[in-house]
Predict the structure.
Amino acid sequence: MGERLVVIGGDAGGMAAASQAKRRKPELEVVGLGKGSWTSYSACGIPYLVGGVVDELDDLVARTPQEFRDKQRIDVRMGHEATAIDLDARRVEVRDHGHDRTLQLGFDHLMIGTGARPTRPPLPGIDLDFVKGVQTLDDAKVLLDHARDTDCRDVVVVGGGYIGLEMAEAFIERGARVTLVEGGPQVMRTLDADMAAPIHDALVGLGIGLRLGTSAQGFEPGVVHTAEGDVPADLVVLGLGVVPNAELAADAGLTLSTRGSIRVNRRQQTSAEGVWAAGDCCDSKHLVSQRRVHVALGTVANKQARVAGINLGGGYATFPGVVGTAVTKVCSFEVARTGLSETEARADGFEYEVAKIESTTRAGYFPGTKPITVKMLAERGTGRLLGAQIVGEEGAAKRIDVVAVALTAGLTASEAIDLDLSYAPPFSPLWDPVVIAAREAASAVEDELRSG
Amino acid sequence: MGERLVVIGGDAGGMAAASQAKRRKPELEVVGLGKGSWTSYSACGIPYLVGGVVDELDDLVARTPQEFRDKQRIDVRMGHEATAIDLDARRVEVRDHGHDRTLQLGFDHLMIGTGARPTRPPLPGIDLDFVKGVQTLDDAKVLLDHARDTDCRDVVVVGGGYIGLEMAEAFIERGARVTLVEGGPQVMRTLDADMAAPIHDALVGLGIGLRLGTSAQGFEPGVVHTAEGDVPADLVVLGLGVVPNAELAADAGLTLSTRGSIRVNRRQQTSAEGVWAAGDCCDSKHLVSQRRVHVALGTVANKQARVAGINLGGGYATFPGVVGTAVTKVCSFEVARTGLSETEARADGFEYEVAKIESTTRAGYFPGTKPITVKMLAERGTGRLLGAQIVGEEGAAKRIDVVAVALTAGLTASEAIDLDLSYAPPFSPLWDPVVIAAREAASAVEDELRSG
């Protein structure tokens, strides 16, 4: 009998690795264990489904279990939950929920793609039925039913991160009254406060009841308790971030990393030989801070999974790491960031200069030109770029990718000035906003050197 | 008396350098000589003015002569044409057209920003009044008058480069009958033939009479002669590229470079001490091919001018070079390129692998998602990226900047796969089209290595 790869987790991390490994090593027997009923899907699309921008739940399904079986000869078993990993015996204990039985499944190689789950702080009533996370397609179904239900008038979103904001807007589009409760002084804490400020105005402009500095303290049917009083709620949506599903790995004795994620090396191997991980359950290296970080993003998951899959298939591939890029849309605002914010840079001991510039997305005289603000950080002395944040309208956000590549390459602000970026009046001002920011950042670094 | 900087040329190259130098060294006396009546303006905006997308000629003026005088204390003299440079005597001969006299103007430093002019092949009738280039704001005025003149029914555009295509579309928007005459087998010769093909369809779809492989042979009032017969023409627009205005520099004994451009070093200094050049009149280094090239683009001109200005102002700055990035819009098509095309790569002796992929600008399920085709070249063996071309619709073209930065940093296709680009459904599929292309290119390089 040939070698067997067991994959725990039916979403991006696990299944993409399985596909890659099977392509490289067709003789490999691959068994995929999916706890729920869905394999590969776009969790990032859920807010757009709930808001009615995307029509069908099926639109979010990238590949069904049957497709994995038919096209890639992967033995996908849904409703099968891995409950324990025995590294010495090289086997996984599996609960087959459909047949209400427990199996032992031996493996030669193990791929862990258990993902993450929405953070649920231990508050009274947090497990009540009307308090929902945004994660699986089952969540999506429930949220969609609420969104379409005209009796669901009052929605409280707890947490002002990307998912929280996207869900708040989604329910506004469905005609609900939405209150956003955020414990901190700003939404989008991965942005600096000055860059988040215009988003507050946009949210209020949308009609969202914005309660900053207000933590949820507990839930009862129809109401969310906060220190500033009760808020009526037919539905509560949790947008407090995610925690890695790493308990299984931890119980098996695998080394953990930041925020309880599974520690992987550059090949996506865990601390155990022949055991690999990818996606929201494991950690990454941050290429600017050089720290281990936990980033739960579909793009990162898929890239890590590709690397794990190549290695599982007998090849050699490494995942260099992330630079912390993220993007979202809030009403007509596009918001993006990469690298380190001021808060993060300080926490990592960097001294830096800041540039913040206002420009336009097209030539100033070109119809449809929109405002864009770019904030950029460069290290004191070396001038090395540390990060950037962009807030603007149509055409603004994707410019962050230029900075993401520059960070990966370790460019200085001064080097970024002369980047040969594309220019024509419908696409950019003569000096691209990112380059203007780099110019200001380079000047600030130079001025500081001269005065020092 | 202090030092005097004389600037020849009133557009981007010259005046931007003058401003930069004056800021750094306020005691510098700066005299700017402008042949025409306009200083800093956007030549790239002319097609949009002619097409009616931009309303006013004044919209294209970035800074007037008076603003240079008032805000930067630069002695700008319009209608003053430099007619000779005496490097030994350190003086410029100037024809003052306003007063019909000739002056001698001494300099300590000389900045040459004479730009380029539309190519006018020596064809019979090429100097007739109805044959127009697209360069100065005076050209723009004349073209605009024709565009608004309902008697100007037949417009022939000679040359299918960026300007040719933009002007053809502009006159279509004004209701003219437009014929585009291109001597080669395709428009946009900086793209490979396969990438230019869909643009041909778009042009025909716009109603433009497209005549490929057809060279203009001569002009007579009302008609353009070609080998394939006469084409009626109330107006002929030349879109055959530009030639550097370097005769003055050549006559003074300065070293020339490719296509007759002025050779500059990394600080934008010409072959003569204290004599500098920037913009369309001088050359650049191509960072991929390592060749000297002539690139006539406003972005490059401004960057070179900044570098020249810093050096003129007593600082130290270098211009590393270009990677050959360009972008335009033809109807709903966005077209961009950077690095080397297949033709260019072959000419430079590179062997390479090609990836060509179809994807979408947003998540496939997201409303408004548009098609995008990315072609990418990677060097055989090393896998180093050599160039990319993008054709697509809204949201496609600006992605070329990611490749432009990657080329600058010398990344391989394999390294480009793991770039941490921004992802959210309204902005990109999970795998950015550029990354998909990099993945295919890296596979092709790997397959070739394995089979070799």
About this structure: Chain B touches chain A through 65 residues (CB under 8 Å). The longest helix of chain B spans residues 433-451. Chain B has twelve helices and 27 strands. The radius of gyration of chain B is 23 Å.
